[in-house]
Amino acid sequence: MDKIILAFLLAFSSLSFAQEGVLSIAIYEFQSPELGILNANNDTIVKLDKEDLNHGYYGGDYMYDDHAFYSYEDTLAAGIYKIYVKQGDSVFLERKNILLEDQKKNSINFSLPQMYVMDIVLDTTSFDKDGMPYGTYFAGGFELSSALPTTNNYYNFNGGIKGYYNFNWMANNWFGGGLNYGVSYEYHNLHQADVNGSGVGFQHQYYTYWSGFIGPQAVFSIPEWKPLVILGARYYLPLYTRLNQKDDDLKLKTRDLHNWNDLRVSASMGYNFVHVFAEYRFFTFMKSSLPDIPFLYFGVRFIVGDNL
Predict the structure, then answer these.
(1) Domain 135-304, CATH class in plain words
(2) Comparing C-alpha atoms, which of 39, 126, 120, 108 is closest to residue 71?
(3) Would the pTM count as exceeding 0.70?
């Protein structure tokens, strides 16, 4: 009798402390899907067809409006699983080595290869096709730039750094528009010359230029390869512009040198988060006879964001 009670308690204890998690699966754009779940030993533990799955419609920013989806959710023992979704003999999608942890929920999305679906509901984001997500998203980044010398050869070094933020809306997975805004710092070193008519040829002369910028942009993405082409325009609002001149103990700082017309257009192309870009300024920026800052810039742009 004691052995029977002990065996019962051990069995109850093992059940009470069993490690389990929740597996949630969503299937988009399939007409007649079949779902299969296999364990680490390749034993099929779940096999469901269209009639056995939950069925509904989803409409929203990230999905095609009123398209059908199927779903499955259940509690399974923690471990490694393989999941497949197929439709007849023509379509077969598979996810291998899905880790289901104790007391956690793992959520997986499937979609047909010719469609793009972004997971906005669940814990992890999964893509069945490269490209940009539908709807709105944010991304930030920074740029490192240089510039070509002006025709009068005043400059021997040009450099700049910009931090920016994007708000974009993608109409589909290849085209969208957005707003780009941020802060810019530029440094332009000058040759030894009397650039402002002071009568002194200073040993060190350079511009420092802080500005805030904002402007529209168009975003183009090529699905399955995922390069991005971004065309945009920016207006740079001068926050601080100064000509610094030094010669031994003599220092001269001149402010209020600029006009308010720093309008530029830009184009960039890259893969994933690294882009090369060029930017062109339309109008003369510096007042009077001062040498102007460059018109043509080029550099590298780094984009930071989840949806690239």
Answers:
(1) mainly beta
(2) 108
(3) no
Tell me what pLDDT residue 233 has: 96
Choose among 217, 220, 192, 218: nearest CA to 206.
192
Is the predicted pLDDT of residue 194 greater than 60, yes or no? Answer: no
Joined tokens for residue 152? 């009068």
> What does the longest C-alpha to C-alpha distance in the chain come to?
111
Place of tokens 């006879």: 289
Q: CB neighbours (10 Å) of residue 68?
A: 14
- The domain limits of the chain are 19-111, 135-304
Please, what is the end-to-end C-alpha distance for the chain in angstroms? 66
How many Å apart are CA 162 and CA 215, to the nearest integer? 14
Would you say domain 19-111 falls under CATH 2.60.40?
yes
Phi, psi for 215 (deg, rounded to 5): 180, 165
Q: What is the token pair recorded at 5?
A: 């009670």
pLDDT tens for 245-282 read: 887 778 888 888 899 999 999 999 988 778 899 999 99
Do 19-111 and 135-304 come out as alike in CATH topology?
no
Would you say 26 and 108 are in contact if contact means Cβ atoms under 8 Å apart? yes
Amino acid identity, position 269:
M
